[in-house]
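Hi L., both proteins are below.
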Amino acid sequence: MKRLIYLLAAVMTACAAAPQAGLNVMTFNMRYDNPEDGENNWMYRRDRAAEVVTSHRIDVFGTQEVLSGQLHDLLDRLPGYEAVGVGREDGRERGEYCAVFYRTDRFTRVESGTFWLSETPEAAGSLGWDGACERTATWAVLRDRKSGAEFFFIDTHLDHVGEQARREGVSLLLRRIVAMSGGRPVILTGDFNAEPSSEVIAHVTRNGLLHDAKAIAAQVAGTPWSFSDFGAIPEGERPLIDYIFTGDRVAVDRYEVLPDTLDGGYVSDHAPVMAAIRFVKP
């Protein structure tokens, strides 16, 4: 009997110490469906964009600039995924989404929502500070179907013009993460319209709540930039403006800026950014 007890104890200890299964996460500015994009229009890119997700076995990803038609195009091409988010102009379907997609065979959505990066975050369509556009953040609490572990995923797109809007937007994001994550591991994705050396990105990581996935990754691959404007920007001048940030208890095994082209055509004017992560015990 003692031997059986010891064996059971050993198995339980080994299981407790075993790392949780990893996740592949991504941030992907899809570029809105603009008829003026010619050969780079969404109708020519949508299959390639979906293939990026499936070929890299992405479990959960945040998007930017997705219009309602694009959202449905992606869901049609990504069976087994669901999405949460609303249009930024009316809180329903008008305007760009910061949609969060996740695999339904792996996760159950516990709760989710969207707020606006403005002085009135619950007011749909509200414009914040000196921002040129309405800006949102979409979040979801997801539960792993096998382990029961939960995490807090949030995706955003900061303003491309307003410096105050970017600064105050980050402050709001940090407050909401603290208030809403409930102590769960946190993943923040998005297009921050700011380079790594900027005050905006320093603001995100300054208090230690979040860490740039690239900075803490065991392996780093891909280009040092994430925005090429469909190749119009000279390679040496292309900025990195798309990010994955992680909270404590998240290990980043690999970070990679993926190519912005596939099969001879662009997937977007931005390159997707992905990270292979694990949740670890404190």
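That was the first. Here is the second:
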Amino acid sequence: MYNKSKVNYALYLVTDRNILGDKDLCESIEQAIQGGVGLVQLREKNAKTKEFYSIALKVKEVTDKYSIPLIINDRLDIALAIDADGLHIGADDIPVKIARNLLGPDKILGVSTSNIDEAIEAQSQGADYLGVGAIFSTKTKKDAESVSLDELKLIKSSVQIPVVGIGGINELNAKEVMSTGVDGISVISAILGKKDVYSAAKDLYNIIS
């Protein structure tokens, strides 16, 4: 069990096998962790349940090796089945309060939000952190509402739990996002879309450190 109080949200990797090319998922995650990633969210929008379960078990071996928390995107059943460190849900998923009750108090629960009202509500329902965005336009989530840097700053100041900026963040704008006072950035393409995953993660980590 990962200690929730020790989570490092600074560089938060979300997976997407579609942008890996010929790179191996588990190897890429390991290289990203070695480069400075402190939290991994396994996101499998198109995998059937058995496949998702199988992938999650393999990824958990990597994250456990480095004592990095593994968060499962959307799928509470998968998170419970593999004893993941947490779950990340959005507006269309299971209600936050229900997810918290089923996960128990010790697991990490992240919630996607795009305004202050949603952020305060998620916190009151038991969220441990918020993923706020999309800050910039992103190919991996075309339907995401946009959140300005000023709004991000306001959301961060309105809650007591960690806030991570998400959506289109890369080495060119990461510093700008961090200047709002958020606890970290969540990235996909900026690490997994690069040929050298380790270097991409290290460069980003150095930019925001």
